[in-house]
Amino acid sequence: MLLLLVGAWWSLLLLEWVAVDSSGIIGAELNQTMALLPAVAALAVLMSLYRKMPRLLVALGSMAIAATSAIALLGDLATSPAVIEAREQVSGIAGGGAVDLELSPVIYVFAFSGFALAIAAALLIFLKPGGRSVESVNQDLDARDLWDEQSE
Fold this sequence. Notes:
The chain is mainly alpha-helical. The protein contains 8 helices and 3 strands. The chain has a single domain, classed as Butyryl-CoA Dehydrogenase, subunit A, domain 3. A 3-stranded antiparallel sheet has the order 2-1-3. Helix 1 runs antiparallel to helix 6, helix 3 runs antiparallel to helix 4 and helix 4 packs antiparallel against helix 6.
């Protein structure tokens, strides 16, 4: 479930975050680190499902989600290279002139939902894993009935 939530949160980077006159810039173009950290979080959560160091990997995913949200919320996205390039194209002035710049509320939705997701992932660290007993694992692996059915 956490992996699906991370994927849904990651997809918010594909929406328009900044509008420069008539052209829009999606979140993934604004900051390359912000575009890659959700992949690290998703990979860490996926690897934790294999039960090898699950708490450490979920903690790593939680930190990656929180870092991405902090970059989105605290970073100056108006000075990113993609925005400066769009302003240069619109104004024709190197470095970008006085051009209308609109920030989308998607930035705040991404940041705050990311913080909530990071807290939820961090809380999963303290949950006791619901493991199966050794007898049920051995019973699942013992396929004698299946072999008997196939031999007939």
